[in-house]
């Protein structure tokens, strides 16, 4: 299993844990109303699970298991793959921090942070496609 | 990886990239930096990422990885090919229908989308059933006569 896959799966598991805990707190709070701040975490916990866990796990396993490009260039440019991993995670963490913050008390700083998170995630997603696209092939290269 | 899986997975990767770019604009709406009407694209973002990305990717990988009946026999490949076409029709027409706030006439595409999805699911299940059944029999399951 490549190093990037190991780190990606570890990060995915952390996102799953964070997303499930936040989701549990959010939903119990809708019933018992014990902490008003938790209402700001509604879209964030879903994205931690759907992007941080599901999408990242797919990327990690596809990067490992999809047919190789060639024996000399097995998984394409590793710099791009690491960039996709870092941008997706940093973008998602920025979103997880700034989106609830902005929902609670909007200011210029959290607007900037949220925009940055959006751009980083979009670039990370495009890089993920660039990395995986040449690996979607009928036969492994020689 | 069979050719059909490459089509499913490439289509899912395109949906993923487009869905994520739309997501970036949606998040920017919350910053007040872009026009708030972009928020009307939110349902398209959800459809592209759930039906276009997750479902098509898993179906593509399932077609590749599911146990084969014998040798390279993948059950009913024509049904799987029909599923690919129907899923494409479903995703595209669903995205068009969800943009009906911009043009109400687009909502008519929703019926086509639902037929595409249902047909796609039925065709893929029809293709996969003999593969799953053969694997169960090989594992010792005794089907009723």
Report on this structure:
The complex is a heterodimer of chains A (142) and B (145). With 142 residues, chain A is mainly α. Chain A has one domain (3-135). Helices cover 75% and strands 0% of the residues of chain A. Chain A has four helices and no strands. Chain A has helices at residues 3-32, 42-65, 78-104, 108-132. The radius of gyration of chain A is 18 Å and the shape is elongated. Chain A starts with a helix and ends in a 10-residue tail after the last helix. Chain B is mainly α and 145 residues long. Chain B has one domain (3-138). The longest helix of chain B has 30 residues, at 109-138. The two termini of chain B are 34 Å apart. The model of chain B has no long low-confidence stretch (mean pLDDT 93). The chains are: A mainly alpha (142), B mainly alpha (145). The A-B interface holds A 50, 54-55, 58, 66-67, 95, 99, 102, 111-112, 114-115, 117-119, 121-122, 125-126, 128-129, 132-133, 136-139 and B 1-3, 6, 9-10, 13-14, 16-17, 20-21, 23-25, 27-28, 30-33, 49, 53-54, 57.
What are its keywords?
heterodimer, A: 142 residues, elongated, B: 145 residues, mainly alpha
In short:
The complex is a heterodimer of chains A (142) and B (145). Chain A has four helices and no strands. Chain A is mainly α and 142 residues long.
Radius of gyration of chain A, CA atoms, in whole angstroms = 18 Å
Strand residue percentage of chain B: under 5%
| Count of discrete structural domains of chain A | 1
Flag low-confidence runs of chain A.
none
Count of alpha/pi helices of chain A:
4
Give the oligomeric state: heterodimer
Number of strands of chain A: 0
Q: Which structural class do the helices and strands of chain B define?
A: mainly alpha
Number of domains of chain B: 1
Helix share of residues of chain B?
over 70%
Please tell me what the overall shape of chain B is: elongated
Q: How is this fold's topology laid out?
A:
The complex is a heterodimer of chains A (142) and B (145).
Chain A: H1 3-32, H2 42-65, H3 78-104, H4 108-132
Helix pairs in contact in A: 1-2, 2-3, 3-4
Chain B: H1 3-31, H2 42-65, H3 77-98, H4 109-138
């Amino acid at each position: 299993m490549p190093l990037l896959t190991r780190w990606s799966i570890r990060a995915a598991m952390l996102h799953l844990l964070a997303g499930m805990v936040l989701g549990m707190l959010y939903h119990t709070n809708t019933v018992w109303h014990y902490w008003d701040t938790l209402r700001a975490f509604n879209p964030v916990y879903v994205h931690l699970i759907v992007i941080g866990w599901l999408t990242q796990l797919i990327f990690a396993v596809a990067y490992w298991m999809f047919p190789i490009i060639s024996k000399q260039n097995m998984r394409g440019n590793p710099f791009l793959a690491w960039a996709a991993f870092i941008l997706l995670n940093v973008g998602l963490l920025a979103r997880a921090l700034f989106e609830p913050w902005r929902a609670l008390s909007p200011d210029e700083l959290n607007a900037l942070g949220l925009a940055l998170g959006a751009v980083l995630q979009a670039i990370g997603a495009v890089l993920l496609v660039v990395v995986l696209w040449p690996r979607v092939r009928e036969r492994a290269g020689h | 990886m069979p050719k059909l899986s490459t089509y499913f997975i490439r289509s899912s990767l395109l949906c993923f990239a487009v869905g994520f770019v739309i997501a970036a604009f949606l998040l920017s709406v919350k910053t007040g930096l872009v026009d708030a009407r972009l928020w009307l694209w939110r349902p398209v973002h959800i459809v592209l990422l759930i039906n276009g990305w997750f479902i098509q990717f898993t179906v593509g990988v399932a077609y590749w990885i599911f146990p084969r009946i014998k040798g390279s026999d993948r059950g009913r490949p024509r049904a799987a090919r029909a599923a690919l076409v129907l899923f494409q029709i479903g995703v595209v027409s669903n995205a068009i229908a969800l943009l009906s706030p911009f043009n109400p006439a687009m909502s008519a595409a929703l019926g086509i989308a639902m037929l595409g999805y249902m047909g796609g699911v039925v065709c893929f299940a029809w293709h996969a059933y003999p593969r799953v059944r053969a694997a169960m029999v090989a594992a010792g399951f005794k089907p009723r006569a």
